[in-house]
Write a structure and sequence with these properties.
Blueprint: E1 2-5, H1 11-19, H2 28-35, E2 41-45, E3 50-52, E4 60-66, E5 69-74, E6 80-86, E7 107-110, E8 114-120, H3 121-130, H4 132-158, H5 161-176, E9 180-182, H6 187-194, H7 198-210, E10 214-217, E11 220-223
Antiparallel strand pairs: 1-2, 2-8, 3-7, 4-8, 5-6, 5-7, 9-11, 10-11
Helix pairs in contact: 3-4, 6-7
């Protein structure tokens, strides 16, 4: 891990910050002005480096500038469930920063080389006090995370394997604007995100293809009967 202080903000850093919900609707010059008023730095992580371990406190307000981090939760039996992936523009665990118990519920590891913009909690607090829109964005971001976690918990605990696959395909179809969904992750990674075994995922996908609901071609899955995937 390497840390450098920002002197002149580079374009790629601004491009990532403009994707962050914290700065939604805020012009680049305003972002620059607000950040210049609070201490911050750029921190670099290598590939497959531990960013945080479950149980340790969340200490920093970090925003991903580049790269991918994977957040995993371990069961009592040692099984790892992928909770989410963080990419360019995501803030890492903002809901924990000011909570009474700010210990990380997940372990976070880099999947690629990662660069983050780092602020302390005090710096973030000062930042959101500088601009009304920033403050509202932070509140909305925390609220959206709560909604996401509620949906994720429902999927992991209440949905069958088939329902999980339907939920995933419907979401990806909407994101990609097509009935042909291109998978950007391996079958194992998708199974981990569902909290299921890989063979259960493959078996159910095969059954759905045999029923004519979907068509599978390597990393592309075409939804043939959309209504069959509705809950």
């Amino acid at each position: 891990m390497q840390r450098t202080t920002i002197r002149l903000m580079e374009d790629f850093v601004f491009a990532a910050l403009e994707k962050c919900p914290l700065f939604a609707g805020i012009k680049r010059n305003t972002i620059d002005l607000c950040l210049s008023a609070v201490p911050h730095s750029i921190v670099d992580y290598d590939c497959y480096e531990v960013y945080a371990l479950a149980g340790l406190p969340c200490q920093y307000a970090d925003i991903v500038i580049s790269g991918t981090l994977v957040c995993r939760m371990a069961s009592h039996g040692g099984k790892l469930v992928e909770m989410t992936r963080l990419h360019e523009g995501h803030m890492i665990a903002p809901a924990l920063l000011f909570s009474t118990d700010n210990s990380m519920p997940v372990s976070v590891e880099t999947e690629t080389k990662v660069k983050v913009l780092r602020m302390t909690k005090d710096s973030l607090l000062k930042l959101i006090d500088l601009d009304k829109q920033l403050r509202m964005n932070f509140i909305r971001m925390i609220s959206d995370i709560n909604v996401y976690l509620t949906k994720k918990t429902r999927m992991l605990s209440l949905m069958t394997v088939r329902e999980k696959i339907a939920f995933y395909l419907n979401r990806r179809s909407k994101e990609q604007g097509s009935l042909t969904v291109t998978l950007d992750r391996s079958r194992q990674e998708i199974a981990d995100s569902f909290g299921i075994q890989k063979f259960s995922l493959i078996r159910t996908l095969t059954e759905m293809e045999q029923e004519g609901v979907i068509k599978i071609e390597n990393r592309a899955i075409t939804i043939l009967i959309p209504q069959a995937l509705q809950g």
